[in-house]
Amino acid sequence: MGTYYVTTPIYYVNSKPHIGSAYTTILADTLARYHRLIGDDTLFLTGTDEHGVNIMRTAEKLGKHPKEFCDEVSAVFRKVFDTYNISYDRFIRTTDEDHEKVVQHVFKTMYEKGDIYKGEYRGFYCPKCETFYSPDELVDGKYCPIHGIEVEEVAEETYFFKWSKYQDALIKWYEEKKAIVPESRYNEIYTFVKNGLKDVSVTRITVPWGITVPIDPKHTVYVWFDALINYITGAGYPFDMDKFNKYWPHVRHILGKDILRHHAAMWPAMLMSLGIEPPHKLIVHGWWMMGGKKMSKSGGNIADPLELVKEVSQVAGISEPFAVDVIRYFVIIDGPQKDDKEFSMELLFKRYNSDLVNDYGNLIYRIVGFAKKKGISEVSPVFDGEYKDKLVDIFNDYFDRYRKAFDEDDSAEALRQASEFVKALNKYVDETKPWSAEPDVRDTIIYYVLDGIRLASLMLMPFIPTVATHVLELIGASEAGDWLDALQVGKLPRPVSIPVDMKPLFPRVDVNKYLKEIEKAEKKEEKKKEEKKVEENKVDIIEYDDFAKIDLRVGKIVEADKHPNADKLLLLKVDLGEGQPRTILAGIAAWYKPEELVGKEIIVVANLKPRKMRGIFSEGMLLAATDSSGKPVLLTPSEYVEPGAKVK
Ligand code: MSP
Q: What's the Cα-to-Cα distance from 270 to each of 103, 160, 194, 265, 309, rounded to whole Å?
């Protein structure tokens, strides 16, 4: 019995999960399940990354406290993972109390060692990837190389981690352990570190939403420094060192290519500083793309994993737990394990039809259907011999390759071997021709085909656990006991009752018809949108006298503050040339900071009846035009005009 520890990156809660983020977790789940099946003591960690400027700002925009916002989105991740049958041992959150303690402990340890020192950071920061960039790394001198958004210039007091000190040790570790796969990613990080490391800023003074730096409470810990530590918190460091010493030497981190540097260069250096062995292995995958672009919330092409389950279930006419397995199967076998891959429903249903309908589902239905036709309700092999030997030969080959693939943490290859074995079983039926055999031979063949189905289902267990369990039950093999021991030809309990009442497991999907329907629905939606737009842009005609009733004036904002009882409202004092400024409340807090409004001239409806909003009277209304993102853009005169001037 061995030990196995697998982790996923912890997910930012500023966007909801999509199939891209679910992918990494499904991949990790297949490894964890396999290792539990072979009897390894297994630890599987996943969770959410909840601190940092991006999350703080997203919560602010929604008028929520960051913790309240994190609780909500983290729960959505958990729901998705539970729906997808993810067998994590712990769902860690960086706001968990024990994790915060570990981060502070780590910071202090590294500071006391002299690996963290105070200084000033000057440079650029992308709030989306929460990463510092030097000018030469930026696109056109100002855009983030990952997100394409304009970076922010930062100049502030900070604590640095002596990353550069570990450059040589990192190179040595890369060369000795070759722990980063695939090789292309190994080469990428090797070159990056060879080119030289600069010390990295690990605290912020302008980001209150973070873990307090224990030696200097006006600083918070940089979100990546905080997040990476989750991998040791989850294994018990430093409060349960027995647990930690057991699991840590076996850790496999699974991650996407966009976070290679943090994991393969910064994290091992942090561990070296703490006197901990760098990770055993880093498994780096590519991206799911949609329409040629990385799937992401900001890209607007998000595939909601929960919606996807409903869609697959409905289109294929299967239960939702079966639909989950179909998606799990597809993302592993066709996923961006090395290179980027396009995600589409067409590819998903094509894979479904070929592997699950035609090969696996049909194999079962075909042999059961044949037995039923012959009036057989029970079979036992009448003799072992060539039919058994043939199955043993086929099975051993595929199972050897399957195990080798898993030994290398290569789930996709293991699944390919399982799926090839199913194909080989169909060929076994074609070649042994039970339909033209004598009853004894016929029964023997049926038994070994069912036994083959049992073996295939056991091999498929880490990937499609619900379906595989169902099939095993169907053929009376549910008492699998020791999984490895069961993986031998001939262990299907005899006699086998033929499940004569079974329905096809997986109905075929007419992919062309489905695509046409989608196209039709999309066109309809498009038309509806256009009609709505035309309707919205329609102008209602009013009489001049109606317009003349509205008294529009130029006002100058002389004070601006947040409303004490409403996150969405700003409380403005506006000079309308009346001596005393008026109080005007405006629902623009998500888009404008109070300090940037002071001194600005705006247009005000001056004769609106005062209205109480959250305890305060508003004595007018300001005018704004809504842009395509929904932001109210304030109307302002193109030149300076005396406050109080009439607008006509
Ligand atoms: N919070 C950090 C990770 C900290 S780990 C100590 C983060 N979070 S993330 O939510 O932005 O991304 C998490 C993982 O999801 C990354 O491995 C990333 O590569 C992966 N994916 C995000 N979009 C993806 C696709 N479109 N396709 C495949 N994986 C994707 O980075």
A: 12, 12, 18, 9, 40
